[in-house]
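Before the break, one more example. Copy the sequence into your notebook; we will annotate it together after we see the structure.
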Amino acid sequence: MEHRHPQEAQQLLQLRHEQEERTATVMLSVCGFPEDSEFDALSEFIHRTRHKDVTIAAEIYRAAAEALTNPRLKDKADDILAATKSADRELVESMKISPETMATYH
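Here is what the structure looks like once it is written out:
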């Protein structure tokens, strides 16, 4: 069993508490159908079943995702991948995703 100095243990508990306060959920899903409405039931489900202490930071849904493999849509696919990296960074820094980044997904 590892022994810790009381001050170190207190710091670890504080860090754990801060991490728990910064917990959020992001729902990310894709489908091959072209309508955004395909995600309505999923969105409704996560909102109805989430724990009251869980924050849903964002819902990122991409309809017609299979079409993004088409070489003619490479620029759009690249934009979406770049936005996903930005969203990751934004979540770590502020626990939310900017409207500009979210707009890329549509």
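The mean pLDDT is 86. Residues 72 and 78 are 11 Å apart (CA to CA). Try to locate both features in your own notes.
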